[in-house]
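Rotation project, supervised by the postdoc (A.L.). Task for the rotation student: set up a whole-complex structure prediction and record inputs and outputs verbatim in this book. Inputs entered:
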Amino acid sequence: MAATTSSAEQAAPAADRGPGNAEGREPERDAAGLGRRRAAAFVAPALVLVALFLVLPAVWTLYLGATDYRLTGIPAIDPSFVGFDNITKALGDESFLHSLRLTLLFVLGSAVIGQAGLGFALAWWMRERSGWLRTTLEALVMLAWILPSSVVAFLWIAFLDRDGGTLNELLRTPGAAWLLDHPMLSIIVYNIWRGSAFSMMLYSAALGNVPASHLETARLAGASGFQQLRDVVFPRIRGHILTNLLLISLWTFNDFTPFLITAGGPDGKTETLPVHIYKTALGSGELGYGAALSFLMLLINLVVAVIYLRLLGQKNRKKKTRTARGRSAEGARGSELEESA
Amino acid sequence: MRTPANPAAALLRGVGVYLLVALTLAFFALPMLWLASAPFDKHPGITVSLPDFTLANFERLWNNPNAVDSLASSLILAGGSAVLVVGLSALAAYALSRVHIRGRDGLLYALLLLSSIVTGTAAMVPIFLLAAELDLVDSYLGVVLVLTGGLLPAAIFILKDFMDTTPRSYEESARVFGASPLRVMKDIVVPVVRPGLATVGVWTVAQVWGNFLIPFLLLRSPDKSPAAVVMYTFYTEGGQPDLALISTFSLLYSLPVVLMFLFVSRRYGFRFHGGIKA
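Outputs recorded:
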């Protein structure tokens, strides 16, 4: 379900365009003669499903989190209300804080640094290239991204295997138990491999909007590669960088695949938040406490998503005022740039 | 590039860049090589090696009821969800695009926000309890409904964008001739937005095909498990993993998603739908 989030990217402008639509562009006409009542009937089935399987679980998490509900035992039949006890307990619970720290490390290392960095490097290198090398590289990066997660999980287990894994064969380090000795590093590298494609595509689209003439001018003025990036490229794609960082952080934060590779082990060394919640709630049957942890997770998701949507909203408002203000070259170029986001 | 006057430095730079590119290529290719070699190997090991060519593994897979059933389960789940998501989101997107229902923009905004924060991992406890309450544990319908609920907001957004850009004059003329709204939708709107429907359908299939968590939570009997879950049990259940089976199964299970991806990018051009995997 992680990729559900991706709708945000192109959906927000759609949501935001609404009011402008009514005033500015072609007025909305009920061309098919639906009428409000029938229109509501068209929307209702979708809304019912969303309400039942998306809204209700969110609300239920809130309620459950305030009880001591368990899978078995007396609290299973008659859970009692414990209020904020679960939350307070979580904030003082070393195993929760431990998994939160691991998750932050996972997000920072694999998404913010790894995927964004490698994705940008790939996009930058591919920018003006064509030919078999570029095509092959691009295809492999995309393939890593689209294969089903339980398949890639096993591919990595095999790749890192202690006896006979391809990595050990290549490095001539037989018996090196990567998943046991460096579990966190392993899943971070895995996730960079898995998810760099998204950053690569987003940055490729963004770089397509940096005018080549500006880079050329900078080059002629003697700017080094790094200076070109800093002074010409980054200011122009700042919006894309932020968008990318927020989205990949959100997805990585909610990613359940580490469970498929290490099952949280050894000794909880890779027990990121999703895995920790799974083990607490369904492994140990502490449903109430697990729901409280889920609630904290939803809260973190909410903060990231709200920041993201506010930025998108700001960008669209800016775009609107700019295009409205005039047809100056700057405005036109600016809105074109943002359109691609 | 700054010092074109110094050919040695430029050469060194060029070599350095290609070395990095080669390393990156290896980084992405190496973990996947096994998937290309092992299924065709008479005695597949965990190490990548040139296969001792055979197709017998595929025959063995075909005779393994567990594997075949799970692919059928995946098909049922993906097909069911795709039908529901495409159908319901098309209806909703059409109505939202053509009629200004009060509070529409707020509603869209709220759905968008919700669908990005309520992920399967963050809501697994209530989803499990809800399914138990509705008697949907261990039923395909439960998995389909949960997944559909999660995918619908994104699908509505994508389709509303498509619907907004289609001309309305045909609908008006059809209406003049007395066609009912459903009929207008079926005969006029659907053909026009077919690329959008295809995108949403393919995207839904890809999402459900790869989803592990929801069927893992909700389906209890092993013979109902889809490929994603069966794949996991293949290598986690005790004993020596059967590499011939695992590799062949992985390949077969991955193939549809890869083919669909190729199809969509060839047919409609790979449009960057904000990273929707399709």
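Student's summary: The CA atoms of residues 178 and 255 of chain A lie 21 Å apart.
Supervisor addendum: Confidence is low (pLDDT under 50) at residues 1-27, 326-341 of chain A.
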